[in-house]
Write a structure and sequence with these properties.
- By secondary structure, the protein is α/β, with parallel strands linked by helices.
- It is built from 10 helices and 12 strands.
- Helix 5 links the parallel strand 7 and strand 8.
- Helix 4 packs across helix 5.
- The longest helix has 12 residues.
- The two termini are about 25 Å apart.
- About 45% of the residues are buried.
- The chain binds 2'-monophosphoadenosine-5'-diphosphate (ATR).
- The site of 2'-monophosphoadenosine-5'-diphosphate has 15 residues, from helix 5.
């Protein structure tokens, strides 16, 4: 048994995704939403293994605070400063990992002909999602990251933490960073249903860039459509959500689940 811990947790697509995989692979298991308030988090993490849980995903607002409660924190979770995947080990130890960066990279690898080493990457935004994206881009060998965020101070913090391969621009000049870029990522919430569009200029972008968005409602954001008009390969954000769930499911239930059209279609169905 596994679940997703959050507050609120009703919006999470994880129960639908893991429930689909459990059924598809004929696994006798459950995956449930677990609405747990901040004040109850430590106690819940102690109780869940005793109730038969083998692990859990973690979502807002617990992704950061869960690190302080874990016995073992993977390097990538420590680097990102947040965890999204927990394993309740048989020896009683709580293991915390972050698979968001893995999901991001797998989505690009499977959705495009993408060579991260081909040239600079542009990252728009400097929130929680940007941390996972930046950590994984550096890990796969992107030579340079150009970062811009509406609130400049947040991008400066990321540069200070993640090091010299990162340069920071003002948000207003983000379009200038597109020159020569081979990977472009929107990690902001702009373009999501109900939010303003992401209006960063793509006039300097070359068709050689692979462009992706972490937004997946809508699946085809106006930003991706503009990049496609330039001639770029584009990859929507749904695959990141699906791929980040793979390592947890495999650890908890012993089967590596497929991220394919059937999985995508199931998640998109109401
Ligand atoms: P997440 O964990 O999903 O990254 P977040 O930490 O709230 O969420 O970050 C949201 C990102 O979207 C931030 O980079 C934010 O910019 P600020 O740091 O300036 O807040 C960006 N964002 C949200 N609304 C925006 C807007 N209207 N214009 C520009 N950037 C925006």
């Amino acid at each position: 048994m596994a679940g997703v811990i959050g507050a609120p947790v009703g919006h999470s697509k994880s129960p639908k995704l893991h429930g689909y995989w459990l059924k598809r692979y004929g696994i006798d298991g459950y995956y449930v939403p677990l609405e747990i308030a901040q004040a109850d988090l430590a106690e819940a993490l102690r109780m869940l293994p005793k109730l038969g849980f083998v692990g859990a995903n973690v979502t807002i607002p617990h992704k950061e605070s869960v690190l302080g409660l874990a016995d073992i924190v993977t390097d990538r979770a420590a680097l990102i400063g947040a965890a999204n995947t927990l394993i309740f080990r048989p020896d009683g130890k709580l293991h915390a990992d972050n698979t968001d960066g893995y999901g991001f990279v797998e989505n690009l690898r499977s959705g495009a002909e993408w060579d991260p080493k081909a040239g600079p990457a542009v990252v728009l935004g400097a929130g929680g999602a940007a941390r996972a994206v930046i950590a994984s881009l550096l890990e796969v060998g992107v030579p340079e990251i150009r970062l811009a965020n509406r609130t400049r101070a947040r991008s400066d913090v990321l540069r200070a933490e993640f090091g010299t391969r990162i340069s920071v621009s003002e948000w207003i000049n983000a379009g200038d960073m597109m020159e020569g870029a081979r990977t472009v990522v929107n990690t902001t919430s702009l373009g999501m249903v109900g939010q303003p569009e992401l209006n960063v200029s793509l006039a300097r972008l070359s068709a050689k860039a692979v462009v992706t968005d972490i937004v997946y409602t809508p699946l085809r954001t106006a930003f991706l459509e503009r990049a496609a008009e330039v001639g770029c390969q584009t990859v929507d954000g749904l695959g990141m959500l699906l791929h980040q769930a793979v390592p947890g499911f495999e650890r908890w239930f012993g089967t590596r689940p497929a991220v394919d059209d059937a999985t995508r279609n199931h998640i998109l169905s109401v």
